[in-house]
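Example record used in the benchmark description.
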Amino acid sequence: MPSFQHARFLVSAAKPQDFPPEGGPELAFAGRSNVGKSSAINALAGRKRLAFFSKTPGRTQMINFFDLGGRARLADLPGYGFASAPRSLRASWDALIGGYLTGRRSLAAVIVLTDARHPLTANDRHFLEWLRPVAARRLLLLSKADKLSRAQRAATLARTRAALDQAAMTSEVLLFSSKNAEGVEETRALLEGWLRAPQ
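Model output (structure tokens):
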């Protein structure tokens, strides 16, 4: 059974021809630079250094693939929307991410992380629009939820769900914090369920 607890690094890909051969279902993690993707992956796997994270936005410039028990994979995508990166580098990242999302037949779900304090930024909305034709489940994680009060978390969750409904974007939405583990078990159970029964 696919499990985050069995996660191990597989390969890094700088271009589509470097992607590992198609196999079992894959989960892709996306989000703007420094939103906490690597921390979320580490929290879900119950590990501290499975996915490398940096305080420097835009450091992850490749797609990092992880094996999940031999039956599924996880893909950590480069952060999007890092405005100060050179234009040529941003273009290559866009081509890499686009090539993965539109050409990967084994893609089962895309998990998009957005900062709970500033959800659905222009970059987030642009990425979600980009995902419309992609035939995969979607999960929006409101990361860093520990920085909000209980009332703020509830309000942010409701506003985000309403905004997605208004834009006719189908996605599950959960509050998440790698710092205090809020939403970690719920997210893990949801994703492992999707891996067991991909669309």
